[in-house]
């Protein structure tokens, strides 16, 4: 798949996961890589960028018997941004799907 298609939607996917509940970075990375072909390390720069933009907060939590993990949660700005971007993205994809499925009356040669 064209990498440009994925780049634009990965931030939205991260926000979507965090809307459900807090996650740690590796957990987000593993989930996305099971559903979207992404390179290792793709998610961490996205998490840093979203945190710098004020869309996420991070906190460290000790795990019983394991190392501390950095968790991410949505801020209220993150929730607002997710809702707005989600609507825009779904409208856009429906439009593209409609355009791609239409027969524009041109004969293929």
Question: What this model shows, in words?
Answer:
The protein has helices at residues 3-20, 25-35, 43-52, 76-101, and strands at residues 23-24, 56-63, 66-74. The chain is an alpha+beta fold. The longest helix is centred in the last third of the chain and has 26 residues, at 76-101. α1 (3-20) crosses α4 (76-101). The chain has a single domain, classed as Arc Repressor Mutant, subunit A (Orthogonal Bundle). β2 (56-63) and β3 form a beta hairpin. The model has no long low-confidence stretch (mean pLDDT 90). It is elongated and about 65 Å long. The chain has a three-stranded antiparallel sheet with strand order 1-3-2.
Order of helices and strands: HEHHEEH
Broad CATH class: Mainly Alpha
CATH superfamily, by name, is Winged helix-like DNA-binding domain superfamily/Winged helix DNA-binding domain
Q: What integer is the average pLDDT?
A: 90
Query: What's the total count of β strands?
Result: 3
Could you tell me the strand content as a percent range?
A: 15-25%
Structural class of the helices, strands and pairings?
Answer: alpha+beta
Share of helical residues: 55-70%
What is the overall shape? elongated
Q: Based on the coordinates given, report the CATH architecture.
A: Orthogonal Bundle
Overall radius of gyration = 17 Å
- The name of the CATH topology is Arc Repressor Mutant, subunit A
The strand order across the widest sheet is: 1-3-2
Q: How is the main sheet built?
A: 3 strands, antiparallel
